[in-house]
Amino acid sequence: MGRSPCCDKVGLKKGPWTPEEDQKLLAYIEEYGHGSWRALPAKAGLQRCGKSCRLRWTNYLRPDIKRGKFSLQEEQTIIQLHALLGNRWSAIATHLPKRTDNEIKNYWNTHLKKRLMKMGIDPVTHKPKTDALGSGSCNPKDAANLSHMAQWESARLEAEARLVRESNLVTNPLQHQLGSSSSSTTTQLINKPATGAPPRPLPLPCLDVLKAWQGAWTKRTRENCTASFPGMMDMDDLESPTSTLNFPDSSFPVQTVGFGENAVRALEFSKSTVLTCESSHGWKLNQQHQHQHVNMPELKERLDNNTAALHDMPLSYGCTDGNAWFIDSFRTGNDQNVSPLPPISNIMEGLADMFAYNSTAGEQNSSVVAAESSDNGTFEENKSYWNSILNNLVNTSSSGSPVF
DNA sequence: AATTGTGCCAACCGCTCTAGC
DNA sequence: CGCTAGAGCGGTTGGCACAAT
């Protein structure tokens, strides 16, 4: 057996917390901070182990916790991130402001998982149960590519989570100290479910859910944007169904240049590990090139060397000297006029724009170019599929259907 | 009214990771 | 480099509330 539980010590209380205990813990932390959790109970006059105090604070007493019913957007975010990350609740929680990993985990297990199952969706694979084993729809090459995609997306999300923590530390050291799992970032979804198309089997596992939703989001928002480089936009306009960071308190140095058809969006973090850019042609560039300064000639050379790979759709990437370089073509075009993968020359122009802009925004400590691509059919099918699922969730949850 | 079943969620358990020595 | 304490994390459980019988 493992080590003995920390709460086995004689005299330490277990079980539900009383209001008096909550008050003691709250008062102590508000005055002194938590410091060492192990030492805290004695100082605060609590007959609890430090771990119990930490959990009580982290999951319940922290002032920046939002309690109550999950919103539709939160539900969608959980579903999408779970499709991408699996049971990595802490990573998911970093994209749901004011929600704890424990709360999200409980909500998934008691609500969302059951809904998906009753809809015939495997909550583990996020695929229709009949296709859960992946028979037929995925060839080995796709599976391998998707594995790469998942790794990169996962790494990117983790990096974002780290950034959030770092930003919390910088902008609110006390708050950071008091609750490390708090988050100032959010994944906000603008969901306008499309038609009531029936769920359809995914041609590929749903590892690209976030991008699918970003496509829908982009389509929607582009209608409200001017044709070219409308200038700096409010953060509210950046709300994206992807994991793209959003900082409600505007405490993070996020720069935006334009939006929509001909816009370039850039997120640049002064001490960041990830840089994400989107171009006017519907492809995305994620950089995460550890501890190296990115410069355009180097990038251009790398991409030139991988031109063939870039055009080897549906999923291509170049990988040189241990750094991966991806071009992400997630298609921002509308349904009738979907942008094709831009010619390499256009990619280079876009990159030039991005880095010309970002070179003025500060040093890029680190970067990776990570960009995945999905062919047009895959994207549209993903979008349709998830629209369908989420639409069903909306209908069933709002109508109080006995099904759920 | 009593018993049983079910859903929900706070809290616990134990493993893993990491920083400090 | 190995050890240790502290913290983080995901899985599981206990117990309460409510519904069904």
TrEMBL record:
<dbReference type="GO" id="GO:0000902">
    <property type="term" value="P:cell morphogenesis"/>
</dbReference>
<keyword id="KW-0677">Repeat</keyword>
<feature type="domain" description="HTH myb-type">
    <location>
        <begin position="62"/>
        <end position="116"/>
    </location>
</feature>
<keyword id="KW-0539">Nucleus</keyword>
<dbReference type="InterPro" id="IPR017930">
    <property type="entry name" value="Myb_dom"/>
</dbReference>
<dbReference type="Pfam" id="PF00249">
    <property type="entry name" value="Myb_DNA-binding"/>
</dbReference>
<keyword id="KW-0805">Transcription regulation</keyword>
<dbReference type="InterPro" id="IPR009057">
    <property type="entry name" value="Homeodomain-like_sf"/>
</dbReference>
<keyword id="KW-0238">DNA-binding</keyword>
<feature type="region of interest" description="Disordered">
    <location>
        <begin position="174"/>
        <end position="200"/>
    </location>
</feature>
<dbReference type="InterPro" id="IPR015495">
    <property type="entry name" value="Myb_TF_plants"/>
</dbReference>
<feature type="domain" description="Myb-like">
    <location>
        <begin position="9"/>
        <end position="61"/>
    </location>
</feature>
<protein>
    <recommendedName>
        <fullName>Transcription factor MYB106-like</fullName>
    </recommendedName>
</protein>
<dbReference type="GO" id="GO:1901957">
    <property type="term" value="P:regulation of cutin biosynthetic process"/>
</dbReference>
<keyword id="KW-0804">Transcription</keyword>
<dbReference type="InterPro" id="IPR001005">
    <property type="entry name" value="SANT/Myb"/>
</dbReference>
<dbReference type="GO" id="GO:0003677">
    <property type="term" value="F:DNA binding"/>
</dbReference>
<keyword id="KW-0217">Developmental protein</keyword>
<feature type="domain" description="Myb-like">
    <location>
        <begin position="62"/>
        <end position="112"/>
    </location>
</feature>
<feature type="domain" description="HTH myb-type">
    <location>
        <begin position="9"/>
        <end position="61"/>
    </location>
</feature>
<dbReference type="GO" id="GO:0005634">
    <property type="term" value="C:nucleus"/>
</dbReference>
